[in-house]
Design a protein that fits this description.
This protein is an alpha+beta fold and 136 residues long. It has one domain: Nucleoside diphosphate kinase-like domain (Alpha-Beta Plaits), CATH 3.30.70.141. It has seven helices and four strands. It has a four-stranded antiparallel β-sheet. The chain is globular and about 35 Å long. The structure holds guanosine-5'-triphosphate (GTP) and magnesium ion. Guanosine-5'-triphosphate (GTP) binds next to strand 4.
């Protein structure tokens, strides 16, 4: 079955929302295959966010992702890549739909980067690439 990489980003961990986010994932019926607390170094984040290198939010994004631990989750299930992104909601937490993780728990804090609580891989190729970066 399909797998995806989910991250509870530093804002989600710091705000104590890991359990609430995991509860939604489990209630949906996806399977936790592996889970770990990670404090990524810059090199790991440069690999993970390679597609965003050079964008205005890239440096603030890396700084934010180094500001505290994230929870990395290897998640499995039929169509889990699309399904988790649906649970997460759209990137901007202000416009993310209520009922989604970002829509219910996130908002715009006026910072240089959107602190939107979670990451989810956006394709099978991304998932395979990102799972190799976060899980050895
Ligand atoms: P991820 O699941 O985290 O990859 O989110 P995404 O796929 O919805 O967004 P994307 O991959 O385009 O961007 C990665 C991360 O960069 C986002 O989750 C935000 O934290 C941040 N980001 C993306 N676009 C913007 C933007 O236009 N402005 C700001 N300030 N931050 C952004
Ligand atoms: Mg993305």
């Amino acid at each position: 079955t399909e797998q995806t990489l989910v991250l509870v980003k530093p804002d989600g961990v710091a705000r104590g929302l890991t359990g609430a986010i995991l509860a939604r994932i489990e209630a949906k019926g996806y399977s936790l295959v592996d889970i770990r607390l990670v404090e990524p170094d810059r090199e790991r984040l440069e690999q993970h966010y390679a597609e965003h290198a050079g964008k205005p939010f890239y440096e603030p994004l890396l700084e934010f992702m180094m500001s505290g631990p994230s929870v990395a989750i290897r998640l499995a299930g039929n169509r889990v890549i699309e399904g988790f992104r649906s649970l997460a909601g759209t990137t901007d937490p202000t416009s993310a739909a209520p009922g989604t993780i970002r829509g219910d728990f996130g908002r715009d804090w006026g910072l240089a980067v959107q602190q939107n609580l979670v990451h989810g891989s956006d394709s099978v190729e991304s998932a395979n690439r990102e799972l190799a970066i976060w899980f050895d």
